[in-house]
């Protein structure tokens, strides 16, 4: 292979990207060396099994991916507002919308939420870590290296260009030759391993490691949403794993599962993809519901309205999410009966979702609403999500879906649910739990600026798209007819508003780090659940003494009784897992193996796989059981953290 | 307080007026400006559903505004109307489960009815046999074969008004979708199977049609024009095409199948004589002949496509 086939050449934008990647890498290496931080990086982060640090790494990576996906979005919006400029040609545009979709769903939304789960769930249920801390580190590094593999495609080898759905036969070897599509397959496969492991991990953690006394129906609602999500992950992700593996075998070894030749069934991919893909939508939206529920209840200063109904509606949504996948392709011609069945099952999802909306309104009712930044994000969510929801019901009506399908009406709908649902929740959750993570709040005034830019920009960007969709504008076109021009220009203005909001958000992180006052107590917002019972910064063992839980909103009850998680008389040594570099090393070898497979260099893939097996064998004979934190050390840590 | 309420009512009364203006503006949108019974059917259903959706939106928005305004932690409000122990209301919760269920039943009935209607030719012209057109998509062009008239066109259609058109659709290669928004919703075209779509134009005119399912580089340009005209004008066009257009040979057809963009063309015979992409036996017809060509880029830019240009 020639070097100019290996690197992407001929695009000034991409040369620019290469230079900036090289510069940033050099800068990072320089800073780490100059301040002698290599050891710190290895000891504190790369080898950590602490759920809080893993969560922080998830969120930092997800923010970087949000930046990348957002840049893709802005490039598309520039192209559509000024098609005459030829900012992107057809091929380049195809690559950009493909990576935008994949990055945002797989490498931004999910990791962001998994990051918040990592930080919050063990604290909320009174656990000292997740059930399998080593596996948790494996999960993170598999996501991280999967994301890296996918992201280098735009400078090395070329980006995938068959859409984030990668329908066959288009995505097959015949019509999408080269490494681009392989990057998609292996990037998703690699990070998918981590997601599946996370699902198992949290399922076990929540079922087995709750604080004594905490019944299932006394669990904080975010932990409930994580549990339900974990079940969806465990049932849905194997389908993706198999589908990706089949397409990889098709492309690299010449089998014919999804090809036009032989006995191939290209439509089978569409089915398998959405049998995973629809539950995936709920994987990213249920935790968001959980986050909003926590925040709305905290800042309405009221117990969540209809707690049981909230839990059951999530369970019903999770069940239904596996029964609606056909609505992504009503237009495939399955006939009136099949479409009727899936049409009705789709619309049924609106019922439990509606229940949730009204319960949030019920939580506000007779509350004492404090308009903090996380609360504003949550309040912005309700009306925005309702617009996305009702248009979802419209799309669910198969007979009219024939007119909405593949149009900007659809694009507007799923951005309304995914941004107003998931992205607002990510921002809300990050702002809300930020003091727990970093020991200081984000600045409220700057936070509100970023919120208003983002929320208004969001509506300006996506509301017009409903109408341009009804005017017949299909998705994924790189140039438009003059009739669609005005609405597209408005959309682009809105997109830049959102970009501005994100930029202000990032600036706020810097500003707050420098100027915001440090938290003195662990209870930054006068919280209701156990995460606020820990001091800030949270000691690595979380709870010096694990409280006995006596009801919903456990910390509220503790505060009334004057209890804390530091019962000096009852301290015992705490068993904690040891740090290990194995997950990082194993997944970096897996990265090498996947990279080899992307370029179909089998020697490299095989060598990498052997390396991974060796690492697994190594782990099997690893008898390190962790260590005990001594009572003295706990006392010292707690006393200094609590200012006693 | 009373003053504010009156103020609010004044604005609320403007809402229906705003809605009317808003919806009348929408009637310019292609999907909401149907030119045939199928699209009309779908538009009616869209409007029917929008009414219920707007109802839901209004209810939620009003309640939401009420809650946020009334229960905000204003200075001086203290603990008036504050009830932190309020944790649910079974009757209300049942109510807001049942009402959406009822709405879904109300929407499902016409939805299912329409779904079944769409599988048949429109009733308004059931006295005439539908005109059969084989629509074949290929990267990135459309072939329309009229078996009765023995005509094949590339990237344009002529159809008579007031007569149902039965599209028998398939694809030579990637999955695509035939969409003529002014006449009705879309359906996929796939290699190795045949899908059917009934459309009809009631008004003569020129409508835009396209592939709406992304299938690679030439996707954006994969459009065609639909000329809907009276029965007489249509038969004139048929006669003229049969007399003046050349025959379609298999060699010529194979060449046209090569991935790329094409101008409009007319032939006085159809490719159905030697290949029907809608059958399992022929699903690899195009890929076998052009495997290498699918790997090449067209380098399409806006307004200056290379190679065989459109018009």
Textual characterization of the structure:
The complex is a heterodimer of chains A (644) and B (311). By secondary structure, chain A is an all-alpha fold. Chain A folds into three domains: 36 residues; 215 residues, Cytochrome c oxidase-like, subunit I domain (Cytochrome C Oxidase, Chain A); 229 residues, Cytochrome c oxidase-like, subunit I domain (Cytochrome C Oxidase, Chain A), CATH 1.20.210.10. Helices cover 68% and strands 1% of the residues of chain A. Chain A is built from 21 helices and two strands. Chain A has a two-stranded antiparallel sheet. The longest helix of chain A has 35 residues. In chain A, 60% of the residues are buried. Chain B has 311 residues and is of the alpha+beta class. Chain B folds into two domains: 100 residues, Helix Hairpins (Orthogonal Bundle), CATH 1.10.287; 168 residues, Cupredoxins -  blue copper proteins (Immunoglobulin-like). Helix content of chain B is 37%, strand content 20%. In chain B, the strands form two sheets. Chain B has a six-stranded mixed sheet with strand order 8-5-1-2-3-11. In chain B, a hairpin with a 4-residue loop joins strand 2 and strand 3. Chain B is elongated, with a radius of gyration of 27 Å. The N and C termini of chain B lie far apart (67 Å). The C terminus of chain B is likely disordered. At the A-B interface, helix 5, helix 9, helix 10, helix 11 and helix 12 of A face helix 2, helix 3, strand 7 and helix 6 of B.
Biggest beta sheet summary of chain B: 6 strands, mixed
Question: What radius of gyration of chain B results from the CA coordinates?
Answer: 27 Å
The biggest beta sheet of chain A reads: 2 strands, antiparallel
Mean pLDDT of chain B: 90
The CATH homologous superfamily of the largest domain in chain B is termed Cupredoxins -  blue copper proteins
